[in-house]
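TA notes, week 10

Several of you asked for a full example with nothing omitted. So below is the full record: structure tokens for the whole chain, then the designed sequence directly under it. When grading your own attempts, check the secondary structure regions first.
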């Protein structure tokens, strides 16, 4: 039974929540899981640098905390974009309310998170996965 659950869960969208503050990450996870059936992984933003291309290929969205000085994470953002990871930025800094310099196409959700705004942003940015073969055959 565990194998079936694992296979089922693997077909769910995988969302990385890369946040410096653990309680904020837990809040984001709670709000996202209340709105969407998904898998989540909570980590500190610098831990993303240890994720290889194969691991990132399984990520359907990364909610990434942006510090006030976004230049500190430019290389990290560029790598995630190059690997094809859909991003949604989150920040407390009004300076990034309308976008992060150089990455204006990636939306920003302000903290503290508003449940509806966060859920809508996640759903819009989430990579669409093809349905599993057994579901595709039933349609």
């Amino acid at each position: 039974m565990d194998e079936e659950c694992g296979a089922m869960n693997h077909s769910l969208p995988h969302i990385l929540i890369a946040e410096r503050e653990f309680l904020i990450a837990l809040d984001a996870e709670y709000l996202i899981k209340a709105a969407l059936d998904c898998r989540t992984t909570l980590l500190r933003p610098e831990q993303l640098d240890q994720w290889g291309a194969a691991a990132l290929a399984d990520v359907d969205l990364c909610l990434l905390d942006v510090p006030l000085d976004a230049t500190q994470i430019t290389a990290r953002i560029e790598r995630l974009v190059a690997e094809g990871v859909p991003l949604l930025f989150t920040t407390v800094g009004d300076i990034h309310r309308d976008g992060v310099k150089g990455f204006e196409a990636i939306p920003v959700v302000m903290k503290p998170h508003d449940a509806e705004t966060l859920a809508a942003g996640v759903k819009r940015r989430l990579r669409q996965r093809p349905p599993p073969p057994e579901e595709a055959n039933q349609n």
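Strands lie at 14-18, 39-43, 61-65, 87-91, 108-110. Use that as a sanity check on your answer.
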